[in-house]
């Protein structure tokens, strides 16, 4: 199952979710690959990889110079592999990829050669450019992290317009789910926006909410997912719950009545 994690607004915990959800799925007995598609390379950094020391990265895959298998590497967590990114050449990909014919299919073709993972999670840039469109074209599920803040919730419209376009052009089976991150249960505005999201999107809003937790900010410094850096923390428990919800969705995703 290929999951794209994307929101064109930055700072909504896309990278944190990619690392933490991948690790939680591994803890539940699955093999997972996390793919760094962001020129900032924060996913690589969060898993202890210095992008400046890389000889090959996801840019080489997207430009057709190397296979995904040749650039991916193991992480400190057995069962969780990383396809890393480098700052400079990913910016070149963002600039030149769209001039190629059928460029939206590049990542899908690269992932089709990798078959031994149960889950592939793609950490997307905070923009609806050619790299993000590649992830949406390849994905079975788009996971949209969003804060219960006005601008973050308002930005969902752009993401859903992108979903409609991708469905029409290259990936008619793409589904989406909205996950609430950085939630403060004591904040009245957060509660009100959560209710509005649930009223507007219904079952497309995941039940699991990721609350504010300082341990989530600390874990990337040590190059570890939250589930291993602070396994007894609230955030770790919530990402484990999120993994359970995603697994349940994966079992039901072929249901013909599903529309989102």
Task: Describe what this molecule looks like in 3D.
The chain is of the alpha/beta class and 260 residues long. The chain has a single domain (2-252), classed as 3-Layer(aba) Sandwich (Rossmann fold), CATH 3.40.50. The protein is built from 13 helices and eight strands. Strands 3-4-2-5-1-6-7-8 form an eight-stranded mixed β-sheet, sandwiched between helices. Helix 1 packs across helix 13 and helix 6 packs across helix 7 (130-138). The longest helix is centred in the last third of the chain and has 19 residues, at 234-252. The two termini are 16 Å apart. The relative contact order is 0.19. The model has no long low-confidence stretch (mean pLDDT 91).
In short:
The chain is α/β, with parallel strands linked by helices. The chain has 13 helices and eight strands.
Beta-strand percent range: 15-25%
The CATH architecture designation is: 3-Layer(aba) Sandwich
Strand order of the largest sheet: 3-4-2-5-1-6-7-8
* DSSP summary: helix tally: 13
Distance between the termini: 16 Å
Number of beta-strand segments: 8
Give the full name of the CATH homologous superfamily.
P-loop containing nucleotide triphosphate hydrolases
The outline comes out as globular
Whole-number mean pLDDT? 91
Give the SSE string.
EHEHHHEEHHEHEHHEHEHHH
Helix content: 40-55%
How would you classify the helix and strand content by structural class? alpha/beta
Features of the shown structure:
single chain, 260 residues, alpha/beta, Rossmann fold, 8-stranded mixed β-sheet, 13 helices, 44% helix, 16% strand
